[in-house]
Design a protein that fits this description.
heterotrimer, A alpha/beta (307), B alpha/beta (275), C mainly alpha (345), A: 307 residues, alpha/beta, Rossmann fold, six-stranded mixed sheet, four-stranded antiparallel sheet, 11 helices, globular, C: 345 residues, mainly alpha, MetI-like fold, 14 helices, 64% helix, 0% strand
């Protein structure tokens, strides 16, 4: 299979065998998202993806590849000038019939969002409202989606959520600037978990954090996943991280998924040249010391203006 | 024997907490020596003080105490002496967009250091600018010289920043996280460029980063900083493969390692099963 | 713009730094420029083609008619001629005062903000005092102290009493720009401070400076009108303010001579409007989102009408209007690279 195939992402028989006995929870088919600017930009190009119950799907790619746009599209969070050109997104509810996400409106959309699928945004550390307390923000989520909950119940649930993500419930009355980066991230995860969603989409949740704090957050996410069995779409450019923690990896480039396989396969037998290029960009920490990096021989290609 | 040495550097900041003032000791007794042709990596997380060390060496901050010696002489801090220091010691900044003035062209950014340090002037200026661009692989140079920062990608901007740092003919380069804000697939390209330039010019490079993997592959010696102190130092392979200090071990354990696939999940499962 | 190394090749476009900062033409900008242009043209050409504004040979209080298109005043001066001469006077005062205010604001704002330390403390003290002292009473005191007040003296007074506001704004911007990496890089490269302020920092303040300058002009013209109304304006010159003063003294309102006071008042209002419209256009340079967001919403609406948006076929409100999404508002993808936010000590 050549790299320029348009018949879909490169995959392997291992992958097919792996997904054969898994139950899908979110299916996207032929999704295309465009930015209505002049000239129009196709950010997501005919992407089909299936997320299975309880799995961690890593979505790898560099900036501009469309991974964040795809995440927003799955979630119905597209902002002008982005439009969904074509495609279907189906959510396979564990407690009910399948939901056609694209055609949801009004109350149904509200009921779907955050309840079935929630999201932790990129730059989440700056996504907390700086002028209201954590208690109020968690409370807002509950008020909107569970209006029948009383105040005491909400507070109890908020405290429970903070404990779940490893933050001292005493910090409920803190404001965003009083929390460290790692804690803010945990609060964002708590907010995303508030309604026990079946799918959580995380867009670069640990990118701006120190590696030690990052490891703590990842551990927390794993723990929560073991307990509540939600599926995770983990979007990041840090391929070694995905190789370590995810079940399957989708590599995105210029709006298309170029490779979709199990983590082991991607690590051991990456097929697409771009995947290999990405893998080669991360020198191994404890393996052989790659002398090619120091002497600058093989990868020092001239920066040409030619296409 | 030429060298750039820092001895017992200390930097304290005063922090105001309402009415009260306190001091924050960002850098606490740091010493090391940069030699031509060698790379030292300064590794640490945010808050470790590594960027403050970089700023002190580039004389953007004055140390609270301690000294910086260039070729065994205390460095000049003003006037001629400072200009002479700047001729020898230059810096590449972390953010490729913020380190270039959005108002000016690439040519302006490169011309100024060339003129200030008497490397080129008048008619020879344009030629010198093109030479620099070619050395950092931005060809054809005529095309890049007239561009403005927002017309270039991150990798290209960082190459311009490297060219600017080389313009005065420096012998020592402080690279403050030069690739952490670049796309993954072009990071190695830029690091390779730095490595090549180091070989060609016999530069002494201080490579500041939080990424242990590139620190190991790119440098001869690693210094690990934690909250202002150097907690471990040694040849790169030694520090990475045989860490002594607990913090270094924690850092190494926390870094993503693809060969440990699935281990985190098993640990978590075991934890939950045990509780 | 993608942040990879494979940017599409384009032919090099050499544009000077100032041109790249110019606002793009829009309805607002065009309207503003037309208003300003027309009034400036009137001020330049008007006095040559109208009668002598100081000749009282005409009948008094004539309503608008051929020969006196805006009528005459109670002393027989032709209003149109006075309006043209007044335009010149007001604009000279306004622009000069604006220039004085901006030059002072540059010193007390940009220099103070960049240098910090004791220079900043001292300059900010002066700015603070000027900020706190009420402008109009100060102007009145200074103006009444001087018996002979030319246009330039009035402009100077207005400028000096008006610099504090822009100075504060420019100072905070200069302080913020000072810690930008490109300023640090210039210092490391060996640039001297005056050059850094002039060549690196100032060009990036141009939109802000321009907007403050236009504001200062508006305030100066209004201030001059106020001073003249109180009889403390320029002696011997005609400005829109002096016209209003004389109109009030000559009982124009009670006599129903609307053609005397409406034109100067209208001119002040129109000129101020024109300047403000241009200011809005400048705002859009400083904050591009102001321009882009409405355009983005419009292009999506058009796409929906053309049937291109699958979501739009249901005729539903867009996702962004939905209040149930919590505090984290998504930034649209494809915006400027915003990767890491590491804060290093």
């Amino acid at each position: 299979m050549t790299a320029t195939t348009t018949t879909g992402p490169l995959s392997s028989p291992t992958h097919a065998a792996h997904v054969a006995h898994l139950e899908p929870v979110l299916t996207a088919r032929h999704v295309s998202i465009e930015y209505e600017v002049d000239p129009p930009v196709r950010a997501v190009d005919d992407v089909s993806l299936t997320l299975h119950r309880g799995e961690i799907l890593g979505l790898a790619g560099e900036s501009g590849c469309g991974k964040t746009t795809l995440a927003y599209g799955l979630n119905r969070l597209l902002k002008p000038p982005a439009i969904l050109r074509s495609g279907e997104v189906t959510f396979h509810d564990a407690n009910g019939p399948d939901i056609d996400v694209v055609s949801l409106t009004g109350d149904a959309l509200r009921a779907f969002r955050w309840d079935k699928v929630s999201m932790v945004f990129q730059g989440a550390m700056n996504s907390l409202n700086p002028v209201i307390s954590v208690r109020k923000q968690l409370g807002d989520v509950l008020t909107t989606h569970r209006p029948q909950m009383g105040r005491k119940e909400r507070d109890a649930r908020s405290a429970e959520l903070l404990e779940l993500v490893g933050v001292d419930p005493g910090r409920l009355d803190s404001f965003a600037h009083e929390l460290s980066g790692g804690m803010r991230q945990r609060v964002m995860i708590a907010m995303a978990m508030a309604l026990n969603p079946q799918v959580m989409i995380m867009d670069e949740p640990t990118t701006a954090l120190d590696v030690v704090v990052q490891r703590g957050i990842l551990r927390e996410i794993m723990r929560l996943r073991e307990r509540f069995n939600f599926a995770v779409v983990f979007i990041t450019h840090d391929l070694p991280l995905l190789l370590e923690i995810s079940d399957r990896i989708a590599v995105m480039r210029a709006g298309r998924i170029v490779e979709l396989d199990t983590s082991e396969s991607v690590y051991a037998r990456a097929q697409h040249p771009y995947t290999r290029q990405l893998l080669n960009s991360f020198p191994s920490l404890t393996g052989d010391r790659g002398s090619f990096v120091r002497t600058g021989v093989s990868q020092d290609a001239p920066e040409q203006e030619a296409s | 024997m030429s060298s750039l040495e820092v001895r017992h550097l200390v930097k304290e900041f005063t922090v105001r907490n309402g009415v009260r003032r306190g001091t924050l000791r960002a850098v606490n007794d740091v010493s090391f020596t940069l030699e031509p042709g060698k790379t030292i990596a300064l590794v640490g997380e945010s808050g470790s003080g590594k960027s403050t060390v970089a700023r002190m060496i580039s004389q953007l901050e004055t140390p609270t105490s301690g000294e910086i010696l260039l070729d065994d002489q205390p460095v000049g801090r003003r006037g001629r002496a400072l200009a002479g220091y700047r001729h020898q010691v230059q810096m590449v900044f972390q953010d490729p967009f913020a380190s270039l003035n959005p108002y000016h062209t690439v040519a302006h950014h490169l011309e100024r250091p060339l003129q200030l340090h008497g490397v080129a002037s008048g008619d020879g200026l344009e030629r010198a600018v093109h030479d620099l661009l070619e050395r950092v692989n931005l060809t054809p140079p005529e095309l890049y010289a007239v561009k403005r920062p927002h017309e270039m990608s991150g990798g290209q901007r960082q190459r311009v920043a490297i060219a600017r740092a080389l313009a005065p003919g420096a012998r020592y380069l402080v690279a403050d996280e030069p690739v952490s804000m670049l796309d993954v697939s072009i990071r190695l390209g830029v690091l390779n460029l730095l490595a090549r330039l180091q070989r060609e010019e016999n530069l002494g490079v201080l490579y500041i980063t939080h990424d242990l993997a590139t620190a190991r592959h790119f440098s001869d010696e690693i210094l690990v900083m934690y909250r202002g102190d150097i907690v471990e130092r040694g040849p790169s392979d030694d520090v990475i493969l045989n860490p002594q200090h607990e913090y270094t071990r924690t850092l190494l354990a926390a870094a993503p390692e693809p060969s440990r696939h699935g281990r985190l999940r098993e640990e978590v499962r075991a934890e939950l099963a045990a509780s | 713009m993608t942040d990879t190394d494979t940017t599409t090749p384009t032919t090099p476009v050499t544009r000077s730094g100032v041109r790249q900062m110019m606002p793009s033409m829009s309805g607002k900008l065009l309207a503003g420029l037309i208003l300003i242009g027309a009034i400036v043209l009137f001020a330049i050409v008007g006095p040559w083609v109208t009668q002598d504004p100081r000749s009282s040979d005409n009948d008094a209080l004539l309503p608008p008619q051929p020969g006196h298109w805006l009528g005459t005043t109670s002393l027989g001066y032709d209003v149109l001629a006075q309006l043209a001469e007044g335009a010149r006077g007001s604009l000279i005062v306004g622009v000069s005062a604006g220039v004085v205010a901006i030059l002072l604001a540059l010193l007390f704002g940009v220099v103070a903000g960049y240098l910090r330390g004791w220079t900043d403390e001292f300059l900010s003290l002066v700015t603070g005092i000027m900020l706190v002292i009420p402008g109009l009473p100060l102007m009145i005191v200074v103006a009444s102290y001087l018996q002979v007040r030319s246009l330039w003296v009035v402009a100077l007074i207005l400028g000096v009493t008006a610099f504090a506001g822009p100075a504060v704004v420019l100072r905070s911007q200069a302080r913020s720009l000072r810690v930008r990496d490109y300023v640090s890089a210039a210092r490391v490269a060996g640039e001297k401070t005056p050059r850094i302020i002039g060549v690196e920092v100032l060009p990036n303040l141009l939109p802000l400076l321009a907007s403050q300058f236009l504001f200062a002009i508006v305030l100066a013209i209004l201030g001059e009108a106020g001073l003249s109304y109180l009889g403390l304006g320029p002696n011997g010159s005609i400005t829109w303010g002096t016209m209003l003063n004389e109109a009030q003294g000559g009982g124009a309102l009670t006599r129903g001579a609307w053609w005397w006071f409406v034109p100067p008042g209208l001119m002040i209002a129109l000129f101020g409007t024109g300047l403000s419209l241009v200011n809005f256009a400048i705002d859009e340079i400083v904050n591009p989102k102001l321009r882009l967001a409405p355009a983005a919403a419009k292009s999506v609406r058009e796409a929906r009408k053309a049937g291109k948006d699958k979501l739009g076929r249901r005729a539903t409100p867009t996702a962004t209007a939905d209040p149930s999404a919590p505090a984290g508002r998504p930034e649209s993808d494809g915006a400027a690279p915003d990767q890491k936010e590491r804060v290093d000590v």
